Amino acid sequence: MLRIGMLTSGGDCQALNAAMRGVVKGICSKRDDVEIYGFQEGYKGLIYSNFKMLTSRDFSGILTVGGTILGTSRQPFKLMRVPDENGLDKVEAMKHTYHKLNLDCLVVLGGNGTHKTANMLREEGLHVITLPKTIDNDLWGTDMTFGFQSAVDIATDTIDKIHTTATSHSRVFIVEVMGHKVGWVTLHAGIAGGADIIMLPEIPYDINVVVDAINKRKAAGKKFTIIAVAEGAISKEDAKLSKKELKAKKEKQKYPSVAYEVAEKIQKKTDQEVRITVPGHTQRGGSPCPYDRVLSTRLGAAAAEAILDGDYGYMLGVKKNDIVRVPLSEVAGKLKYVDPKSSIIKEAEMTGISFGIK
Amino acid sequence: MLRIGMLTSGGDCQALNAAMRGVVKGICSKRDDVEIYGFQEGYKGLIYSNFKMLTSRDFSGILTVGGTILGTSRQPFKLMRVPDENGLDKVEAMKHTYHKLNLDCLVVLGGNGTHKTANMLREEGLHVITLPKTIDNDLWGTDMTFGFQSAVDIATDTIDKIHTTATSHSRVFIVEVMGHKVGWVTLHAGIAGGADIIMLPEIPYDINVVVDAINKRKAAGKKFTIIAVAEGAISKEDAKLSKKELKAKKEKQKYPSVAYEVAEKIQKKTDQEVRITVPGHTQRGGSPCPYDRVLSTRLGAAAAEAILDGDYGYMLGVKKNDIVRVPLSEVAGKLKYVDPKSSIIKEAEMTGISFGIK
Amino acid sequence: MLRIGMLTSGGDCQALNAAMRGVVKGICSKRDDVEIYGFQEGYKGLIYSNFKMLTSRDFSGILTVGGTILGTSRQPFKLMRVPDENGLDKVEAMKHTYHKLNLDCLVVLGGNGTHKTANMLREEGLHVITLPKTIDNDLWGTDMTFGFQSAVDIATDTIDKIHTTATSHSRVFIVEVMGHKVGWVTLHAGIAGGADIIMLPEIPYDINVVVDAINKRKAAGKKFTIIAVAEGAISKEDAKLSKKELKAKKEKQKYPSVAYEVAEKIQKKTDQEVRITVPGHTQRGGSPCPYDRVLSTRLGAAAAEAILDGDYGYMLGVKKNDIVRVPLSEVAGKLKYVDPKSSIIKEAEMTGISFGIK
Amino acid sequence: MLRIGMLTSGGDCQALNAAMRGVVKGICSKRDDVEIYGFQEGYKGLIYSNFKMLTSRDFSGILTVGGTILGTSRQPFKLMRVPDENGLDKVEAMKHTYHKLNLDCLVVLGGNGTHKTANMLREEGLHVITLPKTIDNDLWGTDMTFGFQSAVDIATDTIDKIHTTATSHSRVFIVEVMGHKVGWVTLHAGIAGGADIIMLPEIPYDINVVVDAINKRKAAGKKFTIIAVAEGAISKEDAKLSKKELKAKKEKQKYPSVAYEVAEKIQKKTDQEVRITVPGHTQRGGSPCPYDRVLSTRLGAAAAEAILDGDYGYMLGVKKNDIVRVPLSEVAGKLKYVDPKSSIIKEAEMTGISFGIK
């Protein structure tokens, strides 16, 4: 008998179901004696032994379905070793559930934080296999995460729609794209949507350069400017503050989000009307795009193969067009940022995009 | 020689280009001796005699293109008879342009405010034909305006995407849909997207009823609640205030928009996380949906026919499946609201939707 | 106790699930004591007493899901009174199932053929309520059927995509749109997609006029021509044949479908390359468009209301913007054709569309 | 002065305009003294000196527009050295045009055949830079071509729509996907759409295995089977024939396309109804997907950089996430096939997909 636990953790994204379907179909293609324990709402389900027994039937027909049939929750790794209100040590609780159910392997789908915890569980002796799930594409060790391309598609569609209305009026439009720490979604959606200005967490902006770019467009007879701004975009002044100073400043300013902050700055320095669009959680929603379905299905099947091989302790990732096993110890705790000096930035600038810097 | 002036006024929407294409193709199918004057940016172009000479070629290939090739601007009808900074009487200026160019007819595409002005120009003796353009579907005299269905499609797509992410987390999601005075887009998108609660300007809400609906869903094991709220949704307390009192209150509260106000109220009265999505101007953007393309093409062709008949002073509208000529004098100044007692509201309630009232 | 039978019959279409959800949610909003019998695969399920007991939970989350959770089959009404291979009289079998289960009402979702049978069952004394389901929009007694607008959207999307590739090459493109007897989908998709020529079952075409229209475009410097042809489009010569003669001719010609026939005729008479696209059953597939979701939800809720009123023997239809009860006796056996003299045809012609006639 | 010629050759695809925009914006970001010669309809324009002078304005707003503003035609490389009806040597004609216009570089966008000719022109001493355009993704030297992902998206959407209608009926559905020699689009769309059987040119099928797979599904209670078949799919018997024998056989059989052939074989060996969908040229149409827009923009900008560097004789390609210059001499004449032994095939099989082989 092969006993597999499975959980999805962190912010949800597209293709979680597709990936799990790949894992289960892959295992069941070779083995009949499989039990699948679906832990509910991320690590919480593992901690509190909250699970459902699932069969391969439960994974049929979910290739195209957004969300996760297991539910998810922001993962509580920070508090891991701090007992909860009932005195429960969460790491021990997870180990207890794992051993009590006599699991052969725990399959974890998640992003950066999730991988730290997954690696800790591996260090504690559990068999763990992980899949790189995040719209942010910021996981180390894989060329691409699933969810990313779907999010780019949605953010780009938002910019496309804004484009037609922008051409009718003389305005500055700001589209706020998801990404607190990394700007991959904003960068790709900005290029794909033909944004005029892109503001990323990795490239602190100079508001005067942004304003210059707007004015230059106006002077050239272009009536509108479209700005794609990442949630975590930051001015070069703010980038110099300490974390504590920045937090205090933000709390004082009370902007609902970064788009409102940028809008106010632009309105103070130009005579243009500014409009804001916040597609928000739609970027995590809807059916996964075909790219993500293929990627997640392949990763899932490759995870099944690793499990059937009894080869644990890896994240499955994609390198070029191949699926590879990346040691969890190498993945955990590393983020993949947009490099301001990379060729994609340079290529974007050559097509006229301003990143708000000189 | 037939000389036609054309302008698009007010907020832009989908199918403006499609409608103009219909007018021009329709006229040119019968007459070779046509001159088309495209006034830029709405009534402004007529006032300041800012126009381009266009040919039927300019209207080829724009059936599917969003926005308006003429540009538009919020229309300045309130100030019509008040001279501008240069002492210009705007109504006289428009008449002057019309007569100077020796126009046979002015074709105006716009919403409610635009129609008031168009009717005034008619009263001043100009030949005017109008087309009912607005995402709000609030024009009197037509079953449907173009732009509406496209906006519903986009707002519904937003709710659809939120649905998949909502099922993964335990949250309340608020989607803010366009509509300051009327709730047609919110109502249709809310039903189409399967929203649990719909809040309309025409049905002032009781926050306690809203909160009850949320709690009832939670008690029934449904993890999430989706709320479609119109920009102009209003609480029953605020609905009792005078316009002045309300304005003062709003300015004090400083909510970026109604979704933030509703979110705060819900967070105070429940233990649920709330997330906000504001699709904003995307609802006016993108290619018109097929429904709007057919409607606008038909309206445009019928406008051409009226012009060829020399039958002026009408808005073209749709009644059942026929295009009809509706006297401008009957249209101007009337809004078509959602009737809280209408059958669509009752049908929506039967499928479990709460409108925030008992 | 209220016992409701339900079935979907005929070719499937979008919003069948949405409509059934409306019925069930509507009934369950007023009554707790409800039993729902879902007959499998259309009238077959009623004949052979093949059903599943369903609860309101089964109808949750299916608003946006295409297809039908009950399955469907081409309905066997022609053979109704002819015993099957086991000597079974099908009408008696249906009545037997109905009475055996002690049903209060049978809810039938279907098109033209389905309605004939439903009316027969009504005449046999059963309580029947029907909903107008068909992509063809050819049911008498309602302004609109659900499924139609979704099919138009898909066929239009096909034409849109062909448009971009058409502009790159010098070719004639034929898009074959569903509709054997009526041309509503082809007409609307053709207008919405900007087709140059539209060929409908109701307007027998003259191939020489079609060829003239193609040559005229070429002479005017337009490189491509797009033709939207309904499956049932017919030449004026063939329209004069008897049913039997036509059948014999078609069998001899062995064209896979009408597009291939039209293509061959055009290739014989012009020097242009011709390309064929057959979107086929995709036109019945995918998530219902928002328009159909609203329409089907309203119709479903109104059906629930009729059932709760104990008012049977009706199809629910839409007139203007209201849902109405239309006596089944008036609906059965009537088709709603495109009228060649209607205003929409005239309006389409004014925008330059040729219907292949002089 | 920098004089750039540009042409698009072969079957059109998405993102041709986006790529050209990237080239022109990239060059104009560094140089003011640029002349752009847009050759019409592929190499024909170069042969017959048929071009338009273009400015950067012509490339504004075309990022999202399908097709090619230059037009294209199947490229005549086979006849290159054979004089045409007027005794014209085409290679000399192209060289003549190039030198007459005093071009600094010729930018060529195309697929496999196009690259052979481009390399020949390079060998003749012209400065050539190429961009890898094809929905087939079969070009050697780049991980990915633009057009491919857009085509996969459209083919997948077709399969998705068929899925919902398939679940309502008991049928076999065949979706014919573009790809005569290589099966990349079919493979990816098949996996993404959840096809049950995938038939590729690279993996000759055994019809008995295909039929077994269908019957096995039926026996397992699954009502339908979806088959994604590439245009160039071939049976193992036919794969053994010589080119000449195969051609003779095909001409005798007169199937409109491969889907009809496969359908007939299945209908002979099973009792299931079969339905065919041929999305055809839609797979080349519509707006490029965001993935292709980013890829083509980057490739275009990188081509600009190569030109500004005066570094000619390359195709721009993507390796991992970087844009690289690949010598044309290495690219020309090589096709990138699906390897039947590659990991993606194995992963697909693990998720239950049959490739029609044992």
UniProtKB/TrEMBL annotation, chains A, B, C, D:
GO terms for cellular component: 6-phosphofructokinase complex. InterPro entries: ATP_PFK, ATP_PFK_prok-type, Phosphofructokinase_CS, Phosphofructokinase_dom, Phosphofructokinase_III, PKF_sf. Its cofactor is Mg(2+). Substrate binds at T134, I135, D136, R171, M178, G179, H180, E231, R275, H281, T282, Q283, R284. It is found in: Cytoplasm. Mg(2+) binds at N112. GO terms for biological process: canonical glycolysis; fructose 1,6-bisphosphate metabolic process; fructose 6-phosphate metabolic process. The active site is at D136 (proton acceptor). Gene3D superfamilies: 3.40.50.450, Phosphofructokinase domain. It is an enzyme of class 2 (transferase). It catalyses: beta-D-fructose 6-phosphate + ATP = beta-D-fructose 1,6-bisphosphate + ADP + H(+). Pathway: Carbohydrate degradation; glycolysis; D-glyceraldehyde 3-phosphate and glycerone phosphate from D-glucose: step 3/4. Keywords: ATP-binding, Cytoplasm, Glycolysis, Kinase, Magnesium, Metal-binding, Nucleotide-binding, Transferase. ATP binds at G11, R74, Q75, G111, N112, G113, T114. Its EC number is 2.7.1.11. The record marks G113 as: Important for substrate specificity. GO terms for molecular function: 6-phosphofructokinase activity; AMP binding; ATP binding; diphosphate-fructose-6-phosphate 1-phosphotransferase activity; fructose-6-phosphate binding; identical protein binding; metal ion binding; monosaccharide binding. Residues 3-307 form the Phosphofructokinase domain. Catalyzes the phosphorylation of D-fructose 6-phosphate to fructose 1,6-bisphosphate by ATP, the first committing step of glycolysis. Belongs to the phosphofructokinase type A (PFKA) family. Mixed-substrate PFK group III subfamily. NCBIfam families: PRK03202.1 (NF002872). This is ATP-dependent 6-phosphofructokinase.
